[in-house]
Amino acid sequence: MNRGSPSPKTLFAVWAALLLLLALTWGVARLNLGIWNPVAAVTIAVAKMLLVVLIFMHVLYGVRLIWVFAAAGFFWLCIMISLTLGDYLTRGAF
Amino acid sequence: MPEANPAVAHQFEDAEQQLHAAHFGMWTFLATEVLFFGGLFMAYILYRHAYPHDFAEASKHTDLLYGTLNTAILLTSSLTMALAVHASHSNQPKATVRFLLLTLLFAAGFLMVKGFEYHEDFAEKLVPGPHFNPALPPRAGLFFWLYWTMTGLHAIHVTVGIGLLAVITVLARRGRFSSRYYTPVEISGLYWHFVDLVWIFLYPLLYLIDRHT
Fold first, then answer.
1. Which residue of A43, B59, B81, B90 is 20 to 30 Å from A25, comparing CA positions?
2. Which residue does chain B place closest to A93, by CA atoms?
């Protein structure tokens, strides 16, 4: 199952990157970027998510079927969000 | 014939197949969790889109210091959890217990900080209802309804995680895990990292909407 797994050195590096991204998202939020503020916030959150999922949760080291299982929840979430927004945003009442 | 591994249940061919089954089962459960929280994120997206200014104004009343501190605590607890999994499958039972205890300590620290924060939120009258802070814009109640529900549901998950990790710690102390069998440590780790993931999104969405004015 595990084609190798992350070494403690890798784990510490990921942790450092996560804290750096936390500092970055906090810093960026203090600048007025208009519409780009939420875009930056969500982009940084997604970067943190990928680090946690791929390395802490070992998906990077797992078999292909694990990639499918891990992506499935996110995929259905995207379906829910896009179809719901497709409805609300085209009604003109919201 | 290979030596039978006592940790392999009779319905599985071998330890690897059993590990596969455990992983797929846990990821399926996590997919249901994604959709469980997903409904609340959906509500958040719709109402923030409908009332951007009220959400921005309301978000300024969350406590940025507590929120940021708690994000750092949870990210660090994910590190100690990953180190515990690493220790358990490289045959270091003492290190496993030590890292699990550290993870529990951070988890308790998170709840403690959240408790202080909730206490201040109560004092600031940020609970929607008849005593809701009248100085806030009309739709701020929607933001705080989502704030309490999402952070509350997350805190329940942290509490469940503490119970789960406490059991795993006791089992690790009894020497139940080794490179041959450490599935429960790994599966609980997946759950704990998921709890961290939810917070990674809650932090910018609840605390960082409008911090530049």
1. B81
2. B50
Q: Is the domain of A28 the same as that of A58?
A: yes
B9 domain-assigned = no
Is-above-0.80 flag for pTM? yes
Number of structural domains in chain B: 1
Q: Could you tell me if B197 lies within 8 Å of chain A, comparing CB atoms?
A: yes
Q: Are residues A37 and A82 in the same domain?
A: no
- Does the ipTM surpass 0.95? no
Alpha helices, H only, B90-180: 93-123, 140-173
What is residue B4's predicted lDDT score, i.e. its pLDDT?
60
Amino acid present at B20: H
Min Cα distance B179 → chain A (Å) is 12
Q: How far is the alpha carbon of A79 from chain B, nearest alpha carbon, in Å?
A: 11
Cβ–Cβ contacts within 10 Å for residue B33, how many?
A: 17
Asked if residues A35 and B212 have their Cβ atoms less than 8 Å apart, the reply is no
Cα dihedral value B54, B74, A61, B84, nearest 10:
-170
A57 & A69 share domain: no
8 Å CB contact of B38 and A77: yes
